[in-house]
């Protein structure tokens, strides 16, 4: 059986390497574009439709739940409700009433509390020089109870349950489109449940979760490698060098927490125990072991027996 010519082998190998390089380039470009797009998406406002009633487009009524802030210290979110409508598209019986619409809302986690009421007057927005038939009204900021998930950082999601209903006067309620708008940067908004019972989640973006896990794993492996290299080499380090090493590690831990934005409010997470506590324990055990080894070597080089004295020399003895 004849061997394949060397030129053909080199050409095939070169073509394969070139194709792999092109593939790697496009894959890297796709990853960078995806990360940048996700970062822009997470920093921009996000809107999700909660419920779209029949013929809501014809009435032009929109009810928006705007999420302004996540209050981690209070286990709550700060939100407001915005009602927008087109005056000309409203039924005449509704436009003649004052107020024409009423918004009822409450915290779904506190079913025993009374619903809050917000009346809306059907008056056009007066914009100088612009003919506008829009109606817009916003409730004051209020808080809803938010429950943290049982998952550890960085998978610590938050969930809250709003209850919102728009009522029209004169026994006529125009259909509306209900939506949730996230104004918090660095969070993703997802909705579970049906059209009338909403479970709204705030979670960290996938890019942030991947970054935290990658950096945490790299920091853990690097810390363990440093601990093994520092306390297994010969000659051993001095006590001052070991203290400086431990102090530098503590400074690195503080910088890592601030860099990744690890919350100090929610308590200690599994991530902190594994990435920070375990390497810190390994370094402390290594320092203790190194100190014992150094003390043992010192005692071996300078042996002394308690109560022993050097025998006196005889002046007449020959030297």
Uncertain regions: pLDDT < 50 for 5+ in a row? none
Count of the domains: 2
Oligomer: single chain
Radius of gyration: 35 Å
What's the total count of β strands?
Answer: 13
Structural class call reads alpha+beta
The helicity comes to 25-40%
Spell out the helices and strands N to C: HEHEEHEEEEEEEEEEHHH
Beta content: 25-35%
Mean pLDDT metric: 77
Counting DSSP H or I runs of 4 or more residues, the number of helices is 6
Please give the largest β-sheet: 6 strands, mixed
Q: Please report the distance between the alpha carbons of the first and last residues.
A: 91 Å
So what's the overall shape?
elongated
Summarize the structure.
The chain is an alpha+beta fold.
Features:
single chain; alpha+beta; 2 domains; six-stranded mixed beta sheet; about 25% strand
């Amino acid at each position: 059986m004849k061997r394949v010519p060397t030129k053909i082998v080199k050409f095939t190998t070169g073509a394969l390497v070139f194709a792999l390089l092109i593939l790697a380039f496009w894959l890297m470009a796709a990853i960078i574009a995806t990360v940048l797009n996700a970062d822009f998406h997470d920093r921009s406002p996000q809107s999700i439709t909660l419920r779209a009633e029949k013929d809501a487009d014809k009435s032009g009524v929109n009810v928006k739940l705007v999420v302004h802030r996540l209050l981690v210290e209070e286990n709550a979110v700060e939100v407001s409700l915005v009602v927008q409508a087109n005056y000309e598209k409203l039924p005449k019986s509704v436009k003649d009433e004052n107020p024409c619409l009423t918004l009822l809302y409450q915290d779904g986690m506190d079913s025993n509390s009374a619903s809050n009421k917000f009346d809306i007057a059907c008056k056009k927005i007066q914009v100088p020089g612009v003919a506008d038939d829009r109606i817009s009204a916003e409730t004051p900021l209020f808080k809803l109870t938010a429950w943290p998930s049982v998952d550890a950082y960085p998978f610590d999601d938050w969930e809250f349950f709003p209850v919102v209903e728009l009522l029209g006067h004169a026994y006529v309620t125009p259909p509306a489109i209900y939506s949730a708008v996230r104004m918090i940067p660095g969070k993703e908004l997802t909705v579970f449940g049906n059209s009338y019972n909403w479970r709204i989640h705030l979670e960290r973006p996938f890019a942030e979760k991947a970054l935290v896990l990658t950096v945490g794993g790299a920091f853990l492996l690097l810390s363990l490698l440093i601990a093994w290299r520092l306390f297994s080499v010969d000659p051993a380090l001095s006590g001052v060098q070991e203290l400086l090493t431990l102090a530098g590690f503590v400074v690195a831990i503080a910088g890592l927490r601030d860099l990744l934005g690890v919350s100090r409010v929610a308590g200690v997470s599994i991530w902190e125990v594994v990435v920070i506590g375990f390497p810190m324990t390994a370094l402390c055990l290594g320092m203790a072991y190194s100190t014992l080894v150094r003390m043992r070597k010192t005692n071996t080089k300078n042996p002394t027996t308690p109560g022993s004295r050097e025998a006196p020399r005889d002046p007449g003895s020959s030297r």
